[in-house]
Amino acid sequence: MPLPAIDQRSPVLRMANVDKVFGGVVQALSGMSLNINEGDFISLLGPSGCGKSTALRLLSGLLSPTAGRIEWAGGYQKGDLGVVFQEPTLMPWATVGKNVSLPFRLRGKSQKAVQAEVEEALALVGLEGFEDSFPRELSGGMKMRVSIARAMVTRPRLILMDEPFAALDEITRFKLNNDLLALKERIGCTVVFVTHSVFESVFLSDRIVVMAARPGRVIREVQVAAPYPRDEVFRTSADYAAYCRQASEALQDAMEAA
After folding, report:
1. How many alpha carbons fall within 13 Å on the CB side of residue 159?
2. What's the whole-number mean pLDDT along residues 51-68?
3. Mean pLDDT computed over 15-39
4. CATH classification code of 10-76+157-257
5. If you ran DSSP here, which 8-state letter would residue 216 be given?
6. Less CB within 10 Å around the terminal CB: N or C of the chain?
7. How confident is the model at residue 86, as a pLDDT?
């Protein structure tokens, strides 16, 4: 089923005039406001140090705002949330299957009870047959796939991703970008994705939220109206190039506003 138009989607989570100060001295965010709606793929784009990761951690509940509010809507709650960090953060002593089942086991469920869900999550990320492997036996891209499977195994309605592909080579990154969009369509989730890459943000997103450097705040929003699914034809199209120019200009404005 096609997604509703961006301005017709139901609300999920809202940041309202959020400030975040560390140590009473460093103001990471100032008046940060952001509405996240059901089905959005939002990229947070901005220069290093602009507070993108801080904003994501506030949304996840790992940090609390110094001022302002973060509000869930539409019956959503923290249990509907999955998080993928820049590093895979896998347990090196545990198998792939046990890494993926961790969210369930933290809720008191046994490995056996969630075996079907673990196998399905691994199939979704193309890692069938690797359940008994250990992280040391995997490539960087495969480790990130395990991390994504772990975030998606409970079928969360909202997934937060903090530059998950930044350390990967370009070919692997492109492949995982494609796979991520396919996964989003399969499970019907909402995604907030932190990136430094204009090109990645345009390929993935229908909303690009551009932030200014410290103190971080929203400078502009670029809407990418290209339909999903997206593929290599879109990556080489005139529309893609035009959206990249638009996002680059917004990023330049953000850097000048710092």
Report:
1. 28
2. 93
3. 93
4. 3.40.50.300
5. B
6. N
7. 86
CA pair distance 15, 93, nearest whole angstrom: 38
pLDDT for res 54: 94
Long-range contacts, stretch 118-125, CB < 8 angstroms, 24+ apart: 118/153, 120/153, 121/149, 121/150, 121/152, 121/153, 122/96, 122/97, 122/146, 122/149, 124/149, 124/152, 124/183, 124/186, 124/187, 125/149, 125/152, 125/179, 125/183
Q: Is 35 left (phi over 0), alpha (psi -120 to 50) or beta?
A: beta
Distance between CA atoms of 150 and 147, rounded to whole angstroms? 5
Whole-number Å distance between alpha carbons of 223 and 75: 26
Asked whether residue 21 carries a pLDDT value surpassing 90, the answer given is: yes
Distance CA 204, CA 44 (A): 11
Indicate the SS3 state at residue 124: helix
Residue 78: predicted pLDDT: 65
What is the b/e burial string over 194-225, where b = at least 16 CB atoms within 10 angstroms of the residue's CB? Answer: bbebbbbbbbbbbbbbbbbbbbbbbbbebebe
Burial class (CB in 10 A: 0-12, 13-18, 19+), 7: exposed
